[in-house]
Amino acid sequence: MENLLSSAPSHATLPDRFVFPPDQRPPASTCAVSLPVIDLSRGRDEVRRAVLDAGKELGFFQVVNHGVPAEAMRAMEAACEEFFRMPAADKAPFYSEDTGKPSRLFSSTTYEIGGEKYWRDCLRLACGHPVGDTKFAWPDKPQMLRDVVEKFVEPTRAVGMELLRLLCEGMGLRPDYFEGDLTAGDVIINVNHYPPCPAPGLTLGLPPHCDRNLITLLLQSTVPGLQVAYKGDWINVQPVPNAFVVNFGHLLEIATNGLLKSIEHRAMTNGTVARTSVATFLMPPEDSVIGPAEELLGDGDPSRYRTVTFREFMRVYKTVGARRESVEKAFKI
């Protein structure tokens, strides 16, 4: 619990364990490219093309008019921010360093890559579909949190499923290809909290990484901080009101035989204000089998990835780390 960054009212100096070597410190981004913003209320053909094009070009895009009520999004942000403002004693019952526990509060100070630690606290919530009894493993403080999360996660998952259907239509797969077993696991919500950092140029909130799931929808806060890798530089993702930032995980890259890419991204820190973002991950069950879709294979397109269970994928992912090159090497044929 002493590792939790949000337990301290402020941080006057950056502890040495968070300071990166000079060659790993976040350089200033010079990239002026913006992520596409796709209006999901437009015609289906137009939206399908836009989603597929954005996925192939950048692997990231933002969506608006997606159907999740703005009130549900604002309530989710408010409840999560209130959770991290609570006194340490109120958060302590939910803190755990047991990585096998589906719902828990932890700090990324428990993760070490090369010895450096990352300036982030995280509340992870495992959400069944439907939510059912899984909500009773979530924090009961603040009082409205469980109700707010339930009202947020169901429509957000529905947006993710609709985006997967649109991608399937665009790639020539049957529209329900990703329904059933491949998305039958829990929906995982990571509430990432980045307290004000006394030396933002010396550390990171999250390291460069690719996601381990099929598709991610991020409610990214009004405070900028997300950066996406693009042609050797980093794109600063500017917040768009009532938008989700969408990106693809390694599993979707494997399932589409590399047609869609899982792109590295990272989180920067801020010297003056806290940033709280909400990432929603659509996950398969551990025994689910993931491999390139047969419909995307042919004489000129052999399988580029080996077929694995999600359990095996996660075992390797945790072993080699989340960098794109490492995971690509581990699963590519």
Fold topology:
Elements: E1 37-39, H1 44-57, E2 60-64, H2 70-85, H3 88-91, E3 104-107, E4 121-127, H4 145-171, E5 187-194, E6 206-209, E7 215-219, E8 226-230, E9 233-236, E10 244-248, H5 250-255, E11 265-267, E12 275-282, E13 289-290, E14 308-309, H6 310-320, H7 324-331
Helix pairs in contact: 1-4, 2-4, 6-7
CATH architecture: Sandwich
Helix content: 25-40%
CA radius of gyration is: 19 Å
What number of structural domains do the residues give? 1
Taking strands numbered 1, 2, ... along the chain, how are they ordered across the largest sheet?
1-2-10-7-12-5-4-3
CATH class: Mainly Beta
Order of helices and strands: EHEHHEEHEEEEEEHEEEEHH
Distance between the termini: 43 Å
Flag low-confidence runs.
Answer: none
The H-level CATH homologous superfamily, spelled out, is B-lactam Antibiotic, Isopenicillin N Synthase, Chain
Net shape: globular
CATH topology: Jelly Rolls
Mean pLDDT: 91
Beta-strand residue fraction: 15-25%
User: How many β-strand stretches?
Assistant: 14
Q: Helical element count?
A: 7
Major pleated sheet: 8 strands, mixed
- What would you call the structural class? alpha+beta
Question: Would you kindly provide a written description of the structure presented here, covering whatever features stand out?
Answer:
The protein has 333 residues and is of the alpha+beta class. It has one domain (5-284): Jelly Rolls, CATH 2.60.120. It is built from 7 helices and 14 strands. It has helices spanning 44-57, 70-85, 88-91, 145-171, 250-255, 310-320, 324-331; strands at residues 37-39, 60-64, 104-107, 121-127, 187-194, 206-209, 215-219, 226-230, 233-236, 244-248, 265-267, 275-282, 289-290, 308-309. An 8-stranded mixed β-sheet has the order 1-2-10-7-12-5-4-3. Strands 6-11-8-9 form a 4-stranded antiparallel β-sheet, with no helix packed on it. Strand 1, helix 1 (44-57) and strand 2 form a beta-alpha-beta unit. Helix 1 crosses helix 4 (145-171), helix 2 crosses helix 4 (145-171) and helix 6 (310-320) crosses helix 7 (324-331). The longest helix is centred in the middle third of the chain and has 27 residues, at 145-171. The radius of gyration is 19 Å and the shape is globular. It starts with 36 loop residues before the first strand and ends with a helix. The model has no long low-confidence stretch (mean pLDDT 91).
